[in-house]
Amino acid sequence: MLQLDRVQKTYTYKKQQIYALRQVTLQLDRGSFVAVCGPSGCGKSTMLFAAGGLLRPDDGVVKIDETNLYAISAEKRAQYRAAEIGFVFQEFHLVPYLNVLDNVLAASLALEGIHRQIKIDLRDRAQELIERFKLTDRLSHVPSKLSTGEQQRTALARALLNQPRLLLADEPTGNLDDKNTEVVCQHLAEYAANGGMVLLVTHDLRVASYANDIVQMSDGTILADIADI
Amino acid sequence: MDARWADLPKVTQEISAYLPDTQVIEKITKAQARANMRMEAAKLAEQTLKQEKIHQQHLGNRCRTLAASIISASIVAGGIWMAFLSLINVRNRRSEIGILSAVGVGSGQIIKLFLFKSIIVGLLGAVLGCFIGLLAVMKINDPAIKSSSLSFAQIFSWRLGLLIVICVTVLAAVAGWLPAFMAAEQDPAETLRQD
Questions:
Q1: What's the CA gap between A90 and A51, in Å, rounded?
Q2: Handedness of CA A116, A122, A128, A134 (dihedral sign)
Q3: Within chain B, where are the H helices?
Q4: A93 and B187: CB-CB below 8 Å?
Q5: Which of A29, A152, A165, B112 is the most exposed place for a label (fewest CB within 10 A)?
Q6: In chain A, what residues touch B112 (CB-CB under 8 Å)?
């Protein structure tokens, strides 16, 4: 279960305080797929980063099951991210000089000192994901040689490598065509159906419609659960 | 001075002592005059030679000082350039640091990765730089094109070479470590946003 309890985050820009998150409270259970909608700059991405242990909030608690993400050290939080959280970003964020296979395996770099057999298993799983996302013939290609859809599918494969509990997606379809948008959304829905938790940030209601639950955000606050409206 | 003429002042003094009212007049023959001139010329040549030697020594010292300043300035400039390149390299790789950090690679591991690369690049650069520099000096100093060439020991100092390699490697390591450390210590979201 992912829990955000009265999370606050403020940015300072030219001595002016910008409230990105104002006392945000949200809960995700296993198997849930929640989409967060709202205009640009409303704090969606900040909330997603805070939920994933990527951005320390000024106040409030972020918990995944029994682990309070910001009560542990940065090093332990990184280990937790590696093992339990997967990310998919709008800009893909692939390592430019690594090929598809190595990019997918980049997540395993974090699992330091793991047994040789686990490394072999992760390699097999990476191959399996690459096959599943139809990237087999692109195995040795670097990101610049891939289409945007292929880049996003590579990023999705990387996010799923360590079989995380939580998958966070920040506008994952923002740069994709309709066909690739559908592929990505279907995979996210499938992942949630298999017991994972998905938190998706988007301003596209068509994409949000794949989720079980849609919440609306504005000016750093969760306005309403659209499903409840 | 010719030995035959060395005692002349003494002889003149002795004559004056024994014969106080006697005026001693030295009459120089042409041969004596020539001998005197030769002696003066030899004295002058000796002095000139001595001065020339001192001048050459000064010139040598100045050249050595100039060479030492140029070498020191080159090392400092090369070091700063090397540090600058490492800094740019790590800054350009901020997004990579952000990505690795986001997928859960710890800051220690990221710093190790960048430090290792900086040390390898610094070490290779220093060794290669020393080698190319040495080759260039040996080419300039080739006895076939230069009349007074220097020996290998005068051109190359193992101590200086080792010092350069150590200094450049340490500098590259620091230049690689510092920005990597700063980026890795930031929240991954901040690093990704700055990309």
A1: 17
A2: negative
A3: 8-18, 30-92, 94-102, 107-140, 152-155, 158-185, 188-194
A4: no
A5: A29
A6: none
Q: What is the CATH number of domain A2-228?
A: 3.40.50.300
What residues does each domain of chain A span? 2-228
What's the distance, CA B5 to chain centroid? 52
Burial A11-20 (b: 16+ CB within 10 A, else e): eeeeeeeeeb
Residues of A near B (Cβ–Cβ under 8 Å) read 46, 49, 52, 54-56, 74-75, 78-83, 85, 87, 89, 93-96, 106-107, 109-110, 112, 158
CA-nearest of A59, A63, A72 to A28 is A63
Domain interval for residue B19: 3-194
Burial of A204 (0-12, 13-18, 19+ CB in 10 A): middle
| Number of folded domains that form chain B | 1
Residue B148 DSSP symbol: S
Give mean pLDDT in consecutive 10-residue pieces for chain A, a chain of 229 residues: 93 88 92 92 92 94 93 90 91 91 86 71 91 92 94 93 92 88 91 94 91 92 66
pTM of model > 0.90: no
Nearest to B103 among A74, A80, A110 (CB): A110
CA distance B169 to chain A (A): 25
Q: B120, exposed or middle or buried, with CB in 10 Å at 0-12, 13-18, 19+? A: middle
pLDDT digit string (tens) for B30-61? 677 788 889 999 999 999 999 999 998 998 88
